[in-house]
Amino acid sequence: MKFLIKSLSCFVFIASCFTVVAQETSDVLSDIPQDYKKRSPIYDFDEKNLNSVDTIPDFASKKNKLKITGTIYESDGVTPAKNVLLFVHQTDENGNFELKRENKKRYVYHRGWVRTDENGKYTLYTFVPGSYIYGKELKQIYPIVKEPNKPEYKIETFLFDDDPLLTDKCRTKVEEVDPQRILKLDKKEGLWVATRDIVLGKEIESY
Fold this sequence. Notes:
Elements: H1 2-30, E1 53-55, E2 65-73, E3 85-90, E4 99-102, E5 105-108, E6 111-115, E7 121-127, E8 141-146, E9 153-154, E10 159-160, H2 168-177, E11 182-183, E12 186-188, E13 191-195, E14 198-199
Parallel strand pairs: 1-7, 2-13, 2-14, 10-11
Antiparallel strand pairs: 2-7, 3-6, 3-8, 4-5, 8-9, 12-13
């Protein structure tokens, strides 16, 4: 009889655990927006960790560590733009996009988010991406910008001054539009340092 009571108590306990886990799983799934899979990855950030500084995954283990700092300005090119969300993603050092999956949505693993401070400043700790070995793609970092009360939009990629695939013709064309797009790397205290300022709306025709 005692054995039966103990067995029933154990069963009730296990069933309760399953109920709690199921409820927690249900709560997590209910928190996922309906457009989660289709929406821009710029919205997939953790609000608690969002500030003007972010570190791309694997930064600590990479050989060519890179610190990018900059100021985002309003469309006049003078006024610092605060509370602007900047999202970036990039390839690994071999030029490949490392893909992960979360809640059945695929995403680029090497990514990060920053929100500009009161002075429009931001800082990203990342690493120099590679060029795809079987292609002729430039080394690039891919950004998306989100201003307060406006839809997100892509801006031109960050390029690298020392990239051998950046031909003179391509360089001239880029510099005529926005020389800030080409990152000039300077080695300081064991990592590369570059500046990338952004003027809102400058790089899209419909702004």
